[in-house]
Write a structure and sequence with these properties.
Protein name: HpcH/HpaI aldolase/citrate lyase domain-containing protein
Keywords: Lyase, Metal-binding
Family: Belongs to the HpcH/HpaI aldolase family.
CATH topology of one domain: TIM Barrel
Distance between the termini: 71 Å
InterPro entries: Aldolase/citrate-lyase_domain, HpcH-HpaI_aldolase, Pyrv/PenolPyrv_kinase-like_dom, Pyrv_kinase-like_dom_sf
Number of strands: 8
Strand order of the largest sheet: 1-2-3-4-5-6-7-8
CATH architecture of one domain: Alpha-Beta Barrel
GO molecular function: aldehyde-lyase activity; metal ion binding
Helix content: 40-55%
Largest sheet: 8 strands, parallel, barrel
Radius of gyration: 20 Å
Order of helices and strands: EHEHEHEHHEHHEHHHEHEH
Number of helices: 12
């Protein structure tokens, strides 16, 4: 259940297509932030580097392919406002992800922002440390069991639920996961751990119904608009409408 002390709801857009043009368009649809998906999307290193500055209308967060300090640093060097780190299993893995997002003495990030190669000013290390966001994903039964340790790991700003992997790991469906209100259920466990730790609880929703359900449970960041889904849904709807246009009358000799 949502709480009066929760931060305002953030709506995230999500880009899978792997091009600067798609990311730029998605950054301009009115969301609060954009996630560039380099784990399951088509983004590689080069397209992340090109897409982050192109999607300048909102803060860009990169979902990296794994909990790797080099991948995390590379995304941040490209100018990302933050990272989303998948498959984090416990507090130590969460702390390692967070350390990779921050320069010493708070972390272990190496200096090398790519803004310098674009002739743009760079952000001082202390300012970068204060501004960066580190989200870690909980997607397994082991992670749910350790969610309190994950949420309070130093430098973690958000715990983000990957509902598809979590449902698979728990032997259930996403619909059943969202409908589970039993005591100690996984989604409530994440929200409650985040409230205790003072971090955001986020989740991939993919659509309005799931987003409403997640927000009602206390998730304060939900991803609802995915570029591949938007193109498919809008294109299908438009073509269906176009099919209702009568054919021109043909004159017969």
């Amino acid at each position: 259940m949502s709480d009066a002390t929760d931060p305002p709801l953030q709506i995230a857009a999500w880009s899978m297509l792997g091009t600067p043009a798609a990311a730029s368009l998605m950054s301009r649809i009115g969301a609060d932030l954009l996630v560039v998906d380099a784990q399951h999307g088509l983004f590689d290193d080069a397209s992340v580097i090109a897409s982050v500055p192109a999607a300048s209308a909102v803060p860009v967060h990169v979902r990296v392919a794994s909990n790797s300090a080099s991948l995390i640093g590379r995304a941040l060097d490209a100018g990302a406002a933050g990272v989303i780190v998948p498959m984090v299993q416990d507090g130590s893995e969460a702390a390692a992800a967070a350390a990779a997002t921050r320069y010493p003495p708070l972390g272990e990030r190496s200096w090398g922002p790519l803004a310098a190669y674009r002739g743009e000013p760079t952000t001082a290390p202390d300012d970068a440390n204060a501004q960066v966001s580190c989200a870690v994903m909980v997607e397994t039964a082991r992670a749910i069991a350790a969610v309190d340790d994950i949420a309070r790991a130093p430098g973690v700003d958000m715990v983000f639920v990957g509902p598809f992997d979590l449902a698979i790991a728990l032997g259930t469906s996403v619909a059943e996961l969202l409908a589970d209100h039993s005591p100690g259920n996984p989604l409530d466990a994440v929200v409650e751990a985040c409230r205790r730790a003072g971090t955001r609880a986020g989740a991939f929703a993919g659509g309005l119904d799931a987003a409403r359900a997640l927000a009602d449970r206390g998730f304060t960041t939900v991803a609802v608009a995915v570029d591949t889904q938007l193109i498919s849904a809008a294109g299908s709807a438009l073509i269906a409408e176009a099919r209702s246009i009568p054919s021109p009358r043909q004159e017969h000799a």
